[in-house]
Hints:
By secondary structure, the chain is an alpha/beta fold. The chain has 7 helices and 7 strands; from the N terminus they run αβαβαβαββαααββ.
Amino acid sequence: MGVDEDLNNLVSRMEADKIVFVFDMDDTLTSARKEIPDYNLDLLERLLGRFTVAILSSSDEPALKKQVMDAFMKRNPGNLLENMIILPTNGRKALVYDLNAAAHVLAYYYSLEKKIGKNQKELLFGIIKEAVKEYGIGNVFRQYRGYAPASSEEFIDDRGNQVTLQVLGKT
Length: 171
């Protein structure tokens, strides 16, 4: 199945269900960067039996695999995973379950650089770096982390679909 066909199947399922539950990962379904607890797995299993469920996270695929999918696979969820959409890196990608591959596969991918161009993205990074210097963001970082940042790069998180200024530094 190609990416376009996967995306069309995803949209069809969502339209057929009419209801899609979307959950944030960290500090909603789990404690930050921890494996999903059993009571939330129970909830998701019940929902997946009837609805489409999407899990959105700022984390990328390996973290979501560790936090959610590994725990689900221990339960032998059968066809329930067909109703689960994984949205890593704040929706930069959409992964849908492919029964033949027995894994979530890429159905959608968004790239900020492709959308605005490399030069514009570099300009955006430059503006953020200047703001870090001009507004003394390093002082906030130093207060919070207890040490001075090595560079403004410690504040800038390129997530592919967005560029984020993280005043307290990357976690």
